[in-house]
Structures are given as C-alpha cells and as structure tokens.
Amino acid sequence: MVSDSLGDMLTRIKNASAVGHATVAAPASALNQRVAEILKEEGYLDGVAVVDAGSHKTLSLTLRYMGERRGRRSVVSGLRRISKPGRRIYCGKDEIPRVLNGIGIAVLSTPKGVITGNQARRLGVGGEVLCYVY
After folding, report:
1. Which contacts (CB < 8 Å, 24+ apart) does range 51-58 have?
2. pTM of the complete model beyond 0.85
C-alpha cells in the first residue's frame, strides 16, 4: 500500500526518464490523472492513457525526449514533491511560487481544481502546492 500515490508517480517518471524508458506505469487516481494531464498539456509528457488491469486501473505515461535517438535527453530534468502527507504546504494567491524564473511549472490543488501556478495567478486563487516540474 502506497500512502503517497502522487509522490510515487513522480518518482516513477523521474526514474524512467533518467534511464531512457519510453513509457512508465503509475497507480491511477483522480489526482494522478489530472497531474499527468497537466504535464501533457505543458509538454513534459507525450501521452497519458488509463489502462484497466482487471481489479485496478493504472496510468500509462509516454515520456517525451529531445534530440536524436542516440543523444536524446528527457524533457523532464527534475520533479520535486512539495506538499507531502506529513507536511502540507499552502500558498496564498500572492505567494504562488515561480519555478526556475518561469522555466518550470508549479502544480497546485485549488478550489478551482488542480491547475498550474500560472493559471492560479490568472484566476487569483491559492492552494496546496503539490509539486514542481522543470
């Protein structure tokens, strides 16, 4: 039993991109699926699919790489879980963090749903800072 499925998914993405895997399987939940869709929208993943494996569902994530086959590098250079089950981190609408001066994204859970830091700034809402992706 995994107590932090989002942290588990982020670790799987980070490890798979470090060794050059094309796809990675992660536990499916509504939060994981929405974060994966955000990563796809922002260009960090190529595909997100929900696979029904009998009694449980998993997410099949297709990773994105830059460059040729021989010298390809992962688009994801870093993932960091910020708010954890043992310590929640919240920010107000005026305190939304910028990741690497705008190069990366912050993913927040807000009353408007799970959105990026830029969307939260536009909407004028704060929330729980889930992770940084760069």
Report:
1. 51/25, 56/27, 56/28, 57/28, 58/25, 58/26, 58/27, 58/28
2. yes
